[in-house]
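Weekly sync, protein design subgroup
Attendees: M.S., D.O., the rotation student, P.L. (late)

Item 1: inverse folding check
M.S. brought a backbone from last month's batch and wanted to see whether the design step gives back something sensible before we order anything. D.O. pointed out we never logged the input encoding, so this time it goes straight into the notes. Structure tokens as presented (103 positions):
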């Protein structure tokens, strides 16, 4: 599954799990995979990444782009002294790489 929209990482855990279930059901239907085979092995055999892995990958790439950006103001958006709004219960894009590792 291809995750290109930056808001995808801010979705709730339950919505991400729904997307992963949809992904596994679709792969089972497309390739006629029997139900006794684990989703883990389906992803490994088909070289697919889960939705959570895609979100983590997107976040790491975003961080790399910010680190290498030409504009100094962009590089100041991250790190220790960066301004963060914590009023809403949303995950910021830089925090998405560690969002699923906390559990």
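Designed sequence read out in the meeting:
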């Amino acid at each position: 599954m291809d995750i290109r929209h930056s808001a995808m990482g801010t979705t709730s855990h339950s919505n991400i799990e729904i997307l992963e279930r949809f992904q596994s059901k679709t792969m089972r239907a497309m390739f006629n995979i029997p139900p006794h085979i684990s989703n883990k092995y389906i992803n490994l055999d088909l070289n697919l990444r889960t939705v959570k892995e895609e979100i983590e990958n997107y976040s790491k790439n975003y961080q790399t782009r910010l680190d290498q950006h030409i504009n100094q103001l962009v590089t100041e958006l991250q790190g220790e002294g960066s301004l963060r709004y914590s009023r809403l219960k949303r995950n910021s894009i830089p925090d998405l790489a560690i969002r699923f590792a906390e559990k």
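Discussion: DSSP finds four helices and no strands in the chain. The helical segments are 13-31, 39-45, 51-67, 72-75.
Action: P.L. to compare against the previous round before Friday.
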